[in-house]
Amino acid sequence: MDEGDRRRRTERLRVSMPTPTLVERYAGCLLGLACGDALGGPVEFKSRAQIAREFPGGLRDFVGGGWLDLEPGEITDDTQMTLMLAHSLVEIPGREPDLDDVAARFLEWYRSDPKDIGTTTRVSLAALAAGTPWFEAGEAALDASPPGRAAGNGAVMRCAPVALRYRTDPARLIRASQDTARITHADPRCTWGAVALNQGIVHLLGGGEPDAVAAAAVVGVAEPEVRAAILGAGDLAESAVRSGGFVVDTLSAAFRCLLREDGPEAAIVAAVNLGDDADTTGAVAGALAGARYGVAAIPERWLALLQPRDEILALAAWLLARAGGE
Q1: Is 277 labeled as ligand-binding?
Q2: Could you report the per-residue pLDDT of 204-219, keeping only the tens digit for each?
């Protein structure tokens, strides 16, 4: 897609979609994340060719099933960890996140034997359960992994509540993004990836256009792989898109879906149908697209089945209030 095509698409969307309020963007961000997770969960680890064979025209509706035997509209660890982080940010007083509380919530969830938990997250939380402090747990997973193998997408999948809480405080957003990420994912590509995604979400929450989101996302980001992945996402051919669990690939794929597709439904569907780590790619693309287009643009047929819909709406409102309102 060249620059002229992007401008024409942006102008078309301005005409066809009403401007969402900040309340609608907050709700859209978290609900878009959860919808991407729920749509992608049943096809997680399937290739895009397998998905195309099973769902001619693409997977567009909640179907359930998959290796986790999900119900239609059921969420996975992506949304579960997002909600735990959101609850901590709204329930614990103070201007800084209470990282001991965040870690304790993650640990309680880990001990509940969830259906799905990422490899790096599992190693980190096992270290936490063994008494490792939160600020060393992610480092323990990093040390225990082969070089480069602990740079998974388990932090970016859940980081959106930090953007909603610290929308008006860029310095705290950077610190909170990195600190909440490194509880489980200490690789710099993961911590800076969380910063970049949250800065992109903040740009969209403020009404910024998608064609400027990549530049906004990487402001001050010191990790070159993260910068390159996001800045090059819009020009990436579909055949070159990788959608596995590597954080840099997830960011690239999700930003590409936002930039190439019109509205949250199209962006989430495109992300999920890339296959492989479909739920996380869908969740990250959904957070971005929901922040841009708002909750009214998310299909009601999805929202009607989404299991934690009411909880998410309440958390979005509370996060907006904690951020200082409109």
Answers
A1: yes
A2: 999 999 999 999 999 9
For all residues of the chain together, what is the average pLDDT? Answer: 94
Structure token pair of residue 85: 């982080």
> Which structural domain range is residue 287 located in?
20-95+151-322
Residue 242 covered by a domain: yes
Annotated binding-site residue? 280: yes
292 inside domain:
yes
Single-letter code of the amino acid located at 262: D
- Any known ligand binding at 21? no
5 labelled binding-site residue: no
Please list the alpha-helical segments (H only) found in the chain. 3-16, 22-40, 48-54, 77-91, 99-111, 119-129, 134-144, 160-165, 170-182, 188-205, 213-217, 224-231, 247-260, 263-272, 278-293, 300-303, 309-322
Give the 3-state secondary structure of residue 62: coil
Confidence (pLDDT) at 15: 46
Does 116 belong to an annotated binding site? no
CA dist., res. 63 & res. 43, Å (int): 9
Task: Give the C-alpha separation, 31 to 287, whole Å.
Answer: 8
In a domain, 5, yes or no: no
Q: How many domains, in total, are found in the chain?
A: 1
**Rounded to an integer, what distance in angstroms lies between the CA atom of residue 205 and that of residue 72?**
29
What are 254-280's pLDDT values in tens digits?
999 999 999 999 999 999 999 999 999
Residue 78 marked ligand-binding = yes
CATH number at residue 261: 1.10.4080.10
In a domain, 110, yes or no: no
